[in-house]
## 1
Amino acid sequence: MTTEPRAALDRLIAALEAHLSAAAGRKGEADPAVVSAYQVLADAFESYDEALYDAYDEVTPFVLYDDAEDASDEDDEDDAEDDDLEDLEGEEDDEDDDESADVRTS
């Protein structure tokens, strides 16, 4: 089912406004109105993103994650940061070696 991007955008905007209203009127940590508005917003966003892609071969810069993906992604980010630090430390060691080689040849 192909949705027109304009109609999907209108639903997304309405979902954003409903989510804001629900959040502003929150009654506790797991307020069912906020949870419902959150899900409607997520669904509206996915519909808009798909409609935009179908019509114009374009996407938004946003990504939705579920709780399981969040935990997995955080672990992946931590691993990537560790790898980046190891790479930087390796580069510093290489620079130290280059400097000592320059001193010896002078």
## 2
Amino acid sequence: MTEDAGTTAPATDDDLEAVTRLNAAFQSIRSEVHKQIIGQDQVLEQLLIGIFSRGHCLLEGVPGLAKTLMIRTVAEALALTFRRIQFTPDLMPADVVGTEVIAQSPSGDREFKFLPGPIFGNLILADEINRTPPKTQAALLEAMQERQVTVGGRMHKLGEPFFVLATQNPIEQEGTYPLPEAQLDRFMFNVFVEYPSEEEEVHIVRATTSDQTPKINHVLNGSEVIALQNIVRRVPAAEHVVRYATRLVRMTRKGKGATPPKFINDYIQWGAGPRASQFLILAGKARAVLHGRFFVTTQDVRTVAAPVLRHRLLTNFTAESEGIKPDDIVARLINEMPPEESEVLDGGKLPHLLGSNDRR
């Protein structure tokens, strides 16, 4: 389980200054990434929300949409150590986490020496994660949850910050191994990468068929990313916002003590667990800070609901036969859950924390 996302200490002047700094960094990172990537603003925002929430992201999209290039560019803008692991059917767990070899010490004795694998980096790209067998996919589980790996009975801590951004092709089924539900739940976001618009595609073709190579400037470094992650955790979430996120998740479940809408009973086999509620609040906090606010609203929760919930809802045969997708169910849930009094933020006092009534 992740850390508690609901209780925080009062904001300090340093916190508010850090929010302003992160908002400025967000704009700068977006500008740097757009030197390489045309469009995909929503995808980029979701990636950064995941990074500043200490979460992992699973990107889905057809080949050729620059998923790998976007992740590499984000790592460069954040001055993070980037490692790319190409998952293939013959990849072994040791190829990911590392292995122990027998080496000769300066004294002449033979001893085991640990050779770290590519998982030892800051930003790990697990490319085409669904093309490798489950035993290799599982090698990521301990690293993603505990931020450590165990090899030969010895625990090896991973460096901070640490993120796994995995990609998979949703249309390719032959020779693939779907991720089990337990591992899907480790990903904070399931991000859909869509086709660009016509104008964006024209711009892409012009930019990528010339001899110009843009230079990506560093906006933040690893220690600054860690400090800003801590700021995100300190963002206050009002009681009504926490309850809104919790109710939204609980409405996806059937069974004892649950009172979901009828369409949930019709279309859902299994709903989301408590980790979804935690991630809704954490993602809402990160989104608020990226937009220059030190408070989270139900609008933030609604905005991040689809990428948080879509891979945690298991639809039944009825939904599949009628073409009902998890995103359709999330949209219906949001429409049936009005914000109530949740947008009345203590008489409008909270927005003045940053001297603005901006409530994007």
## 3
Amino acid sequence: MSIFSKIIDKRVNDAMRQQLAVIENENNFLVGARSLNQSDRDRYTYDRSSVLEQSLIAWRTNPLARRVVELTSQYVVGGGLTINCKNSAAAKFLDQFWSHRLNRMPVRVSEMCDELTRTGNLFIILTTDAAGMSYVRLMPASHIDEIISKDNDLEQPLLFKLKAGLDNLDPEPIPAYDPNQDDPTKAVILQYAINRPAGAQWGEPDIAPLLVWLSRYSNWLQDRARLNRFRNAFLFVVQAKFASEAQRKARQTALNASPPKPGSILVADENETWKVINPRLDSSNAEKDGLALKKMIAAGAGIPLHFLAEPESATRTTADAAGGPTFRRFEQRQQYFIWMIEDILRVIISRRSMIDSKLKKEVDLSVTGADISSRDNSSLSQAAYYMVEVLANLRDRSLIANDEFLRVIYRFFGETVDAEEMFARAKKDQDNTQGKDSAEKGPREPTGSRPDSKVIQPPDDNMKPDIGDL
């Protein structure tokens, strides 16, 4: 073999070894942790399962985590949701579905909001019976193993693979709802997610960034409670000159056998000195440490400290100003939750229409929620009250039209309306009222048509009154 051949063979072998070599790093040990169908913006499967489990444990054991979840549901759901539907048949069916004892939606909406806040994902199993009545059940996010979506769109799921259990090692996947290929006889899953990064399939819990700080605050609080428990504990230290170690032990045994009681008097000679050792806690530093941890939790939850039983200031103005961003956050979450309920109701109506031909598939439907803050109503009403006079002057001077007057007034009430539609509807109601009143009174007879009627002529300006008449 020539020298040239040896050099070529060596270079070829080095190149092959370099291509086949595997660099040992952290990523090599995660092969298979993420499915090929999943997005690279999602957490790894083991990481997501760990976060869901920790969130559930924190909600069960940590009062702050429980309070954060409850606050979201109390403001988002509030006093309940109201369904508005102009179609009488659809409205009747939705009322039956909403109050059905197997659905109990007035109570379930709070559970749905809790689950959405706690896990960031809401998987709803929808089943429909032969009569067209649908039933809603919540699937825990921890039971979903994989979401199989379309190749060109991760936000259009096709199947939901369940995790294997002891009773079922290979569970059959449940199809996702598809409006174009829906079969009312089969169960489907609807997925809703919050805090979902762009290009991801799974959402994130609201308390996910708080888990580490909730744990630190809980450990800090346990340490403080443990130290405070021993705040009143103390030890006696007796110092004396002993001739031998045996004499010291004998004195210690005698004192342990009969320790001094609180309030008793001790008499010792000049060779024996008594001292007391007790723990010293610096409460000022501890208060600052606990407040710093609680601020981090409040900032991550998007709520002020006085929502977590920690008054920041004694002034009411500061508390009101701190609540503004929190109410905006709850309003955004309420908008998403209302849209989610509307979407579920539209699916239910669509399934019912496949069985009941009298019901239309598409109906005019809307859901409204309670006000986030009652203070907004008072401020909006005051603003509208002061603006009515200003806008009325502008309208009287022909500077604005009636529809613009109505639109601005409702704008200060915090409502959005179609002014032209409201005027048309008001005119129609007025015409109907006038027609009804005319029908009740009957046709009017012309004056002077009856024999006993007396015609009164209007006075003539050229006629002069007689003095006798005056």
## 4
Amino acid sequence: MDAFANNRGLTYAVDPPAATAVAPVELCPEPCWYAVSTRSRHEKVVAQEFCVKQIEHFLPLVPQRRRWSDRYVTIHEPLFPGYVLVRMVQAEYVQRVAVLECRNVVRFIGDDKGAWPIPEAEVSSVKAVIESRLECSPYPYLRKGTLVEVIHGPLAGATGILIREPRRHRLVVSISLFARSVSVEVDVADVRRRNA
């Protein structure tokens, strides 16, 4: 369940990152995760092109059941529509250009100084949710809440905000750079409070 993004020139979004995202002062010499914006409903196409170009990427997909005229089908839709994550060294001009030259990539998320990196822990947490194969769904982005780490079970190592619902608890994992979240049911005994 992996995937990633086109443009002729190096362009960037102008939206400021969320409070937990870190904007680089200079181009990072180490591999980091970055978000690229794609044309609407072209995330899978971009991911396929990244595969062909051997660009490391991550496109979280979630199964959704849809009714067609005569039957139900399960299709896999992007968890974060309009975005694909890429792991690269931003200081490497050739890597940046290779990403932007992919068809249907719009831009990196960042500013005129460069793309803003996504914290490794956020990407790892989303990967843990997807790879667990537990039922998950998009959730409104939360700026405040009790930060916890999962210490047992298929989500071990994932961090997020714990919310209480009637008869259950849910872990909300977010990518703060573009303020999107996913939630998954979790046993409260499997988590511990984490200091921010």
